[in-house]
């Protein structure tokens, strides 16, 4: 099996030794995204809704570069620094995944890179 690195300028550049995503075995494995503006590399300002929407936009760009889209997501993992944001997060994800939502885990963590409030990684089908 081979693996292909996915990289697009439409999503934030990696801030460490990792790829935006790896395509392998008919799947796309997207690295965790925090709410960074791809043009400035800075965290977006706003509440958990704004931050989650930015992350989903970034992930959609990475998936598009790999020939896929969010609708092909099979697994999400969400990391929150405050589980009090869970209800708002659920609303945003519900608006995004209206049909056949992916499997998902949400966990609270003590901190995230750049002091972000939320991070999401995902696995999607290539098709």
Principal-axes geometry comes out as globular
In CATH, the topology is named 60s Ribosomal Protein L30, Chain: A
The count of helical stretches stands at 2
Number of domains: 1
The sequence of SSEs as H and E is EEEHEHEE
Please give the order of strands in the largest beta sheet. 1-2-3-6-4-5
Give the terminus-to-terminus CA distance: 17 Å
Write the layout of secondary structure elements.
Layout: E1 3-6, E2 21-24, E3 27-33, H1 48-65, E4 73-80, H2 86-96, E5 103-108, E6 118-125
Parallel strand pairs: 4-5
Antiparallel strand pairs: 1-2, 2-3, 3-6, 4-6
Helix pairs in contact: 1-2
3D structure, described in words:
By secondary structure, the protein is of the alpha+beta class. The chain has a single domain (3-125), classed as RutC-like (60s Ribosomal Protein L30, Chain: A, 2-Layer Sandwich). Helices cover 23% and strands 29% of the residues. It has a 6-stranded mixed β-sheet with strand order 1-2-3-6-4-5, covered by helices on one side. Helix 1 (48-65) packs parallel to helix 2 (86-96). The chain starts with a strand and ends with a strand.
Summarize the structure.
The chain is 23% helix and 29% strand. It is of the alpha+beta class and 127 residues long.
List keywords for this structure.
60s Ribosomal Protein L30, Chain: A; single chain; 127 residues; 2 helices; 29% strand; 6-stranded mixed β-sheet; alpha+beta; 6 strands; 23% helix
